[in-house]
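Limitations
The structure tokens in this dataset are predictions for the assembled complex, not deposited experimental models. Users should treat interface geometry with appropriate caution, especially where small molecules or nucleic acid strands are included. An illustrative entry is reproduced here so readers can see what is and is not provided.
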Amino acid sequence: MKIVVCVKYVPDAQADRHFAADYTTDRDGVDGLLSELDEYAVEEALKVSEAAGDSTVTVLTVGPEAASDALRKALQMGADAGVHVVDDALHGSDALATSLVLAKALGKLEYDLVLTGMASTDGGMSVVPAMLAQRLGIPQVTFAGSLTVTGGSVRIERDGDTSTEVIEASLPAVVSVTDQINDPRYPSFKGIMAAKKKPVTTWSLADLGVSGDEVGASAAWTAVAEIAARPPRAHGQVVTDEGDGGNKLVSFLAGAKLV
Amino acid sequence: MAQVLVLVDHVEGSVRKTTTELLTIARRLGEPAAVFIGKGYDQAAGTLAEFGAGTVYQVEGDVEDYLVVAKAEAIAAAVEQAGGAGALAALLIGSNPEGKEIAARLAVTLGGGIITDAIDVQSGPDGGPLTTQSAFAGSYAVTARVTKGLPVITVKANSATPEPAAGAGATPTVVTVSVTPSDLAKSAKVVERKPKAKSGRPDLSEAAIVVSGGRGTNGDFRAVEALADALGAAVGASRAAVDAGWYPHSSQIGQTGKQVSPQLYVAAGISGAIQHRAGMQTSKTIVAINKDPEAPIFELADFGVVGDLFTVLPQATEEIVKHKG
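Predicted assembly:
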């Protein structure tokens, strides 16, 4: 089975995240890493691959030079090969362009299953998997909390508001997974050493037959007009319960006309 | 005026509050119209009319079991009936996982720019929609617009106060849209649904008040639930509580759960880790109860009580019941 995991290199959510002067997410002046939610996708790919036998896991990313760190982490976890699409013209791309480039890259790879995280931890749009499936003309199954592959189809469970749904789709398919699906493994020392020898292919837009006009800030279908830093919430009043904490809480709510 | 298409979110004809918010927003941008998929239109018609839908594109066809692709195809067919993507001012869809995927696919197939998780939409200086979004766990407010093609915007719950349309009441014009799901649409199917028991409490994404419990409850949510019921609130849970199996994932508030913005958010026994804050940081008023005076949640709270939730919450509940009685 050939599995491709699409991953993203993002600013560390625990650190200071901010925008650059051109209103794009600053990816250069910050510590970046493999998006935490993508770890679940990499882990699931490894589990499916191990269960199926005779399988490969390739990790694919579209991002700046530093995005190779994201690929490296996945390779250390156990993925077999990496593909990195990097090109200056990509700067400022929107989700439509990202999904286009991912689709073109997948067009050059063989895959039975494409796995992704449920959202990136920076943009958080959750739209790329759906766009990718649309562009590839294959089914999408998203927010999987559990995943089983049997023969030529995939079966997932996902936790909705009013019901839990069991969904089946024929392969090849795009499947996004939640953080409920597994516990991502930590790279072992052996895995870290082995990763150094694993192949990483680098592609430019030209390698994919994508013109610079189709991607980047100038091709984007949306534009940011303004960004305003929100002041941190003002520190409110904190009282210590001395047998009347609940009453004081209600006084506050009543004063704010919330009860 | 150009039409603004709103996808109706309903349960067998009972229209959800989020749809009335979208119709209210639609009136700022153009002439509201609705796309209705599924059963129960007769029940929904009145609400849709009340909030200004002049036209309803009622989809006929076996769409519901086939997930987002079928729904996206149905909306695309409705768009055709409305005169094509170029004839519309915008397409508005509620910002839930399914809504965002439908919006995503339509942006690709109809040729449009997509903006997700808008917390406000106004008419911009160029006549098109101008959106506000919250970025990086509430640290930034971003104003944006679609620059070409059809504006496809997903809007979070509680982003607008629903207002009935002035002079509304006229029955909307109904345009029937017949669709047959494509083979691609049929390639993913819901094979089983296991319904969940209804709690009788408001929907978490839409509720005006949310009371959440975390690790500090030690698995016993009764005090949290009693307070929620006294306030008429929904009950949420931190990721720790969900991971421990105390509450279902659909109740999880946080980066990988729901992001809510209610009038009042009460966090009981929740430390306030960043991934939780990402789910509730923009609530209008935040109250926290925690034994640990150093808990990061207190930095966010408008009012905090350092104490044991097992004594503070029941006292508060009793006081509220008295106050209301």
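Some entries come with short summary sentences. For this one: The longest helix of chain A spans residues 36-52.
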